[in-house]
Amino acid sequence: MTRTSRRRTRRWLLTAALTAVAALVVFPLYWMVVSALTPGGQSQSSEFYLWPDAPTTDNFTEVFAQQPVWQWLGNSFFVASVGTALSVCVSLGAGYALAKYRFRGRGLLYAAFLVTIMIPIQVTLVPAFLVTARLGLVDSPWAVILPTLFDVVGIFIARQFMLGVPDALIEAARLDGAGELRTFFRVVLPTCWPLVGVLVILGFMNRWNDFLWPLVVLQGNESLTVPVGLSTLTNNPAFTSPWGAVMAVATVAVVPLLVVFLVFQRTFVQGIASTGIK
């Protein structure tokens, strides 16, 4: 076997392996869509099939008619979009300060940030709820947004990325008479669009899929986000078989995540690569 044929064989084997892995990753999403288009969500039959004989949108019609799904989607979009926007601003500012400013206790402060990553949310759940209740924010979208503005992972990624911004570029802007805010917005921020893409995708995904904290602070049925609303469908007596309704809502809930990822896909890949290299 020649070297060219060996390379071609390895390429075909690699393509086959990646195709198999991609199929395993995509199949649960496909199965979700199939279940959403099947009466009863495939729970009425023990037969295995890849496509229903009579696909229908009855699951979508039933769940949207009986539950405030549009309200859940609106709540999730508001929490995810506003929370992500504010969190990205905080992460960019904190990352820039930790990467480019020299002040006493900077290393200790950064170490304290990283230590908080190791603290599970269950430890701070009760104190955070008590503070939220004292502020009168329970059952409000701001009860979900405000406690998540300080994103330690986002600050860590922002700091690692901004370490690669040349100090000479910042000093040149200062020598030209630019203030600190103007230097940040006009010189540093334009170089950080890959970083912004990473923070937007990670932040939006985490807030859209967050379940535990919204479950604690959101109480009214119309105030729920999509993940919490989905949990209420499984034991809802209004549905003879809840799995069709669950799969229908889950199918709709995936769409915003796909749109955000497709919009920021290129900057996401560039940001991850740049952060890793730095």
From TrEMBL:
It is found in: Cell membrane. Residues 73-264 form the ABC transmembrane type-1 domain. Keywords: Cell membrane, Membrane, Transmembrane, Transmembrane helix, Transport. It holds the Pfam family BPD_transp_1. Signal peptide: none annotated. It comes from the Bacteria. It is a multi-pass membrane protein. Gene3D superfamilies: MetI-like. The chain crosses the membrane at residues 12-33, 77-99, 108-130, 142-162, 183-205, 243-264. The keyword DNA repair does not apply. InterPro entries: MetI-like, MetI-like_sf. PANTHER family: ABC TRANSPORTER PERMEASE PROTEIN MG189-RELATED, ABC TRANSPORTER PERMEASE PROTEIN MG189-RELATED-RELATED. Belongs to the binding-protein-dependent transport system permease family. This is Carbohydrate ABC transporter permease. It comes from Promicromonospora kroppenstedtii.
